[in-house]
Specification:
By secondary structure, the protein is an alpha/beta fold. Helices cover 35% and strands 23% of the residues. It has 2 domains: 157 residues, no CATH class; 166 residues, NAD(P)-binding Rossmann-like Domain (Rossmann fold), CATH 3.40.50.
Length: 336
């Protein structure tokens, strides 16, 4: 499953190329609790088909009523609408208590600009899209770093892409579950394994499989702040060098599967043979995942994916949820 923004834009483009009327809704501002973050988008066709979301569903229903159901989506300048201004409205639209959001609605976006935007995102580019609020004309250019959505009296600018990327070292069963969950969460997934016997039975479609040495793959991918590396082979010859290279990048998450003893041994090897220190290895996570008592590959993948998403979203997890600390605490607890 690709990034939800790309999916929304693809549907919007298809409608416009079929000469159907459509609108693009963007979450511009939120106050209090909000079901979707600023910058989220939703597309709606004149036949009431919706792709994406700006809330839990009630606001989408209202947008459909206001812009379809016998009404035409006409060509006009962008407009702004607010939902949940009062407690009664928040309740009626299913917003959290005290939640308010403001949307910008673009009517019948031009297909050529949408096609260019999607093409840039497919190439891994970061695209800054600016909408003129007077006439709805869109300008787009490549930028080098993500920017927060901004809105002035004359224009609104929103940044799209590139997709978050996950590099998985190893093509075993756990990796299949991990890749599936990562794709479901909008990650572009690459699996690296030079071992023929592990790649032979790979069954997850839409994943880039590479066979080079893992450390070379890390270098070639030019990992950035929207990238993460998860080493799952349990083989130091494959995992360690890849992790060492990953620690030199801006990847937001670098970690390896393994027991507490194995992870401690890995750190000791890196300190002894590769001139690392405890401080320089602070970014290296392991044992990876949050503690949920997982035993099966599927449950372990859930645990790891949850930690990856928490780090991606800037959520600081309680230390008690770390696998090593939780297991240490269990071992130190004596029955009554």
């Amino acid at each position: 499953m690709e990034n939800i923004d790309v999916t929304v834009l693809r549907h919007l483009l298809a409608w416009r190329e079929a000469n159907k009327k459509a609108l693009l809704a963007t979450v511009v501002r939120t106050w209090g609790s909000s079901p979707r973050p600023i910058g989220s988008i939703m597309a709606m066709c004149e036949d009431s088909t919706v792709m994406g979301s700006v809330s839990g569903g009630c606001i989408e229903d209202d947008l459909i009523r206001e812009n379809t159901h016998g009404k035409k989506i006409i060509d006009q300048a962008p407009v702004f609408v607010k939902y949940g201004v009062t407690a009664d409205e928040a309740h009626r639209f299913g917003l959290p208590c005290g939640g308010t959001l403001e949307l910008m609605l673009e009517f019948n976006p031009e297909a050529r600009a949408l096609k260019d935007l999607i093409a840039g995102l497919e190439q891994g580019q970061l695209i800054r899209r600016t909408v003129n609020l007077k006439d709805g004309v869109v300008s787009q250019d490549i930028t080098q770093k993500p920017e927060e959505l901004s809105c002035s009296e004359t224009e609104l600018t929103n940044t799209f892409g590139p997709e978050y990327r996950m590099l998985i070292i190893g093509a075993g069963q756990l990796s299949e579950y991990m890749a599936t969950m990562a794709k479901f969460n909008g990650f572009q997934v690459t699996v690296c394994d030079p071992r023929d016997e592990y790649r032979a039975n790979w069954s997850v479609p839409g994943v880039n499989i590479v066979t080079q040495s893992p450390d070379d793959v890390v270098v070639n991918m030019k990992l950035d702040k929207r990238s993460c590396v998860v080493a799952l082979t349990h083989d130091p010859k494959l995992d360690d060098l890849a992790l060492l290279e990953a620690l030199e990048t801006q990847a937001f998450y670098v970690g390896a599967i393994g027991s507490r003893r194995n992870n401690q041994s890995r750190k000791q090897r890196m300190i002894e043979y590769f001139d690392h220190t405890d401080a320089s290895l602070q970014r290296l996570r392991g044992p990876i995942g949050i503690y949920i008592g997982s035993k099966t590959p599927a449950e372990i993948a859930v645990s790891v994916m949850a930690e990856v998403l928490a780090v991606k979203n800037g959520v600081k997890l309680p230390r008690e949820m770390e696998v090593s600390l939780a297991k240490n605490a269990q071992e130190n607890t004596t029955p009554d």
